[in-house]
Amino acid sequence: MVPPCEAQPAHPGADWILRLEEANSRPQEEVGAIFADRPVLVLPHGGPRLAVLDAGDGWLRAIGRYRPYTGAAMIDVDAARMTTHVVLPANDELGGRWADWLARTFFASRMLASGWQMLHASAVVINRRALLFVAGSRGGKSTLAYRARSELGAVFLADDLVLIGPGRTVVGWPTRIAIPEELITGVPAMESERRRIIFSPSDLRSGTDCSGPAPLGAVVIIKPGGREAPSAAHTDEREALGLATDIPGQRLHTSDLLGLMGRPQVTCPGLQFDGFGDAPVIELRIGDMAALPTAGVWAALSGLLSYLEES
Fold it and tell me: Which InterPro entries match (predicted)?
């Protein structure tokens, strides 16, 4: 988590143990031959790929590439000892991200199995409550989260994914952030030249104030069209839920299909999730999406989201 929900010392009763070491990776030709010779699990969007080398009752050995061009990691799972042992490729920054990926898979799969719901949204915290921005791909979620932080003094919670759980508690999920370049440089961009600057989760931890879990305050759906100036109105939550929960690729990323961190876990849409409750759901209409980095969105929202102005 960014930052963690709660920090606790390690103890012998841990649910699962992840052990790490580094070693020289197998030669690329040997790894390529292994992947060509057996079924390979490939996660969406150029994600990790895994091939099972051997398996038995309660144990499994797999080889993985974090990206097609990185070194190979060896992964041994011992269910009896509740341990995953990973030998990371030495001196390979991308290949070394297996530990982070496996840890996130562990927490996500167990949270989702216990009734939390993953939502495709950016989020900030204002006056101790989470404000979620929901939109389609490249629909302005990151832009408004960044603007809320710099213009309203909000605290960053998430750029792309959140988990919402019991009591409608919102937790930010650690993913990279893509911010329009013009918001950082202050130089307006031509539509054909729109660029984004990428920040990794570690960049955020070192350079950005991030919020821990917060109760849900409100949800804003960003929609193109309408009048030239931004306008906002209360709306039904069904459209927001449809946009926010339609993320099959991310569910695959947080499903432990091979049981690398315990028994195999496949996450499903949150059947126990019953909506946003009393939190207001607002439709924000943007006439010109290219103008979103400077459009008067807060003026349009202020009359509907009074807590933006609370001290």
Answer: P-loop_NTPase
Evaluate whether 105 touches 254 at the Cβ level (below 8 Å): yes
Lowest mean pLDDT among 36-50, 86-100, 202-216: 202-216
d(CA 125, CA 204): 15
147 three-class SS: helix
Say how many C-beta atoms besides its own lie within 10 A of residue 216's C-beta: 20
Whether the CA torsion 24, 29, 33, 36 is positive or negative: it is positive
Task: Reply yes or no on whether the pLDDT at 2 is more than 60.
Answer: no
Q: Is the pLDDT of residue 101 over 80?
A: yes
Chain-centroid distance of CA 254 in Å reads: 10
Q: Per-residue confidence at 281, pLDDT binned at 50, 70, 90?
A: very high
Confidence of residue 288 (pLDDT cuts 50, 70, 90): confident
Within 8 A by CB and 6+ apart from 202, the residues are none
What percentage of the chain has pLDDT greater than the value 90?
A: 35
Contact 63, 50 (CB under 8 A): yes
Higher pLDDT: 48 or 307? It is: 48
CATH of 117-309, one of 3.40.630, 3.40.50, 3.30.2250, 2.60.460: 3.40.50
Dihedral sign computed on CA atoms, order 300, 303, 305, 308: positive
Whether the CA torsion 16, 22, 23, 26 is positive or negative: it is positive
Peptide bond into 224 cis (omega under 30): no
Give the separation between CA 11 and CA 266, rounded to whole angstroms: 27
Cα 91 to Cα 47: distance, rounded to the nearest angstrom? 20
What residue spans define the domains of the chain?
17-113, 117-309
